Amino acid sequence: MARPGNTTALPALVLGKPEGGRPRCLPLLARYLGVAAMFVGMAGLVPLAVIPAYPDEASLAPCFIFPGLGAAVAGYLVYFASPRPDPGARLSRRQAAACTVLVWLFAIAVYALPYLAAGMLSPAQALFESTSGLTTTGLSVVDVDSCPAIFLFHRSLTCYLGGVGLVLILTCLVTQTGGLGVYNAEGHTDHLLPSAAKTARMILLIYNGLIIGGAVAYWLAGMTPFDALNISMCAVPTGGFATHGDSIAYWDSPAIEVITIVLMLAGGTNFLLLFLLLRGRLKAFATHIETPMLFGISALAALVLAGFFLAEGISGDVGAALRQGAFQAVSVLTSTGFQTIPSFAALGPAPLFVILLLMLVGAEARSTSGGIKLYRVAVASLGLGHDLRRRYGNRRHVTSVKVNRFGRRSALSDDDVAEAQTFVALYLLVLGGGAFLLILCGASLQEGVFDFASCLGSTGVGTGFLGAESAPAPLLIGSAGMLLGRLEIIPLFLGIEGLVSLIRRGASHGR
């Protein structure tokens, strides 16, 4: 969202005559940002609904009213002060990415303000908590056990909004030309239905249905209605914020853990696959390349972690080890971060390495989870194997690589392989850079790599280096890693490049 100090450059860009008679796109960009700001502001008022159930927290209402209304009014002014977009105006790829980055940064700032207004957190801590929620990471600097209910719900709301994607929700509301480009810039390239708006609404319907169903299941399993709604709002988006300091271990309930595993797996599944499953296309769901990987890796990791938990005394017996191993394997692979073990900091290097691998891989593409994603890992690995066979094996028997995608078997193109391998390499480079920055802030090698991998993969489990006692610098580095991971790195870089281009154009028009 453009700040008031930057609006002087916007009219020069918007009102200037377009070169070559091309449609002006900046009015479209400004109006989209205006709608986004209004939505962010109005959504920021939703936690006020908690006050009737917790009337003693009414004094905290201004902490949400002023930021929410301020954001909504700012968005209203931007929208109606912008000229009407030209017919046929479309956002370029960089403009769409710039719009996406601005929406996310604005939302992070707005949802950090209640923490500051209440005096709960410092500026760096508030930004960290807001970013963690919106990116569905789940790392927290809040003392959950003493946190007011209105702020617990605020945290869950940020997970809900960020899990399915701020821009996806906006696409349900905004259908003008250019919306599809912004929708894609956030990482949504799945199209269940012909238009982006219809696809977004269908995804939101599935998303909300899972959350409501999960909340009812939790309530039947013994949770209070407040806990059931909050945990479900964080399980499906694979966010990991909990209403108790012990996370899911607080209830010590096999039924609640099974419900949570189901919701986490649903959140870590490609929305298109969930759509196909709802339409009865079980074979297409089961044979898709990522489905056996998701369940197979979960099962294998569960057994491996159970062995480590038993060997290190984390679990008391084989049954408890299998139960905790299965839960933590799914929680980490889907980048949720819920816990049924006391602390990850107490684990030895071997189980931490297994958990690190799970964080890097992540669950399925086009889901609410983070990480590299199973599809990219599969394509990059198959492409590497094919290249090795072509270079060093029997060339007469080298054939194209085929995979099953949504029930159809098709060959991978060179572009498919190159795109996956490029992303994997870029992801690992960013991980190395972020870990090094945390090491410069005082983290050990293990802490730096593990905690930044958790931020980048939106996982939310850590060694404890990033927490309430951390200095501002590591918290801001972790926040940057969360945003990079949530926007899948490339759109964020494209967005920054687009913003720089807009600023340069504004400066040249202002001369």
From TrEMBL:
<comment type="similarity">
    <text>Belongs to the TrkH potassium transport family.</text>
</comment>
<keyword id="KW-1133">Transmembrane helix</keyword>
<feature type="transmembrane region" description="Helical">
    <location>
        <begin position="483"/>
        <end position="503"/>
    </location>
</feature>
<dbReference type="Pfam" id="PF02386">
    <property type="entry name" value="TrkH"/>
</dbReference>
<keyword id="KW-1003">Cell membrane</keyword>
<feature type="transmembrane region" description="Helical">
    <location>
        <begin position="258"/>
        <end position="279"/>
    </location>
</feature>
<keyword id="KW-0472">Membrane</keyword>
<feature type="transmembrane region" description="Helical">
    <location>
        <begin position="101"/>
        <end position="121"/>
    </location>
</feature>
<keyword id="KW-0406">Ion transport</keyword>
<keyword id="KW-0813">Transport</keyword>
<protein>
    <submittedName>
        <fullName>TrkH family potassium uptake protein</fullName>
    </submittedName>
</protein>
<feature type="transmembrane region" description="Helical">
    <location>
        <begin position="341"/>
        <end position="363"/>
    </location>
</feature>
<feature type="transmembrane region" description="Helical">
    <location>
        <begin position="160"/>
        <end position="183"/>
    </location>
</feature>
<feature type="transmembrane region" description="Helical">
    <location>
        <begin position="32"/>
        <end position="53"/>
    </location>
</feature>
<feature type="transmembrane region" description="Helical">
    <location>
        <begin position="204"/>
        <end position="221"/>
    </location>
</feature>
<dbReference type="InterPro" id="IPR003445">
    <property type="entry name" value="Cat_transpt"/>
</dbReference>
<feature type="transmembrane region" description="Helical">
    <location>
        <begin position="424"/>
        <end position="445"/>
    </location>
</feature>
<feature type="transmembrane region" description="Helical">
    <location>
        <begin position="291"/>
        <end position="311"/>
    </location>
</feature>
<keyword id="KW-0812">Transmembrane</keyword>
<feature type="transmembrane region" description="Helical">
    <location>
        <begin position="59"/>
        <end position="80"/>
    </location>
</feature>
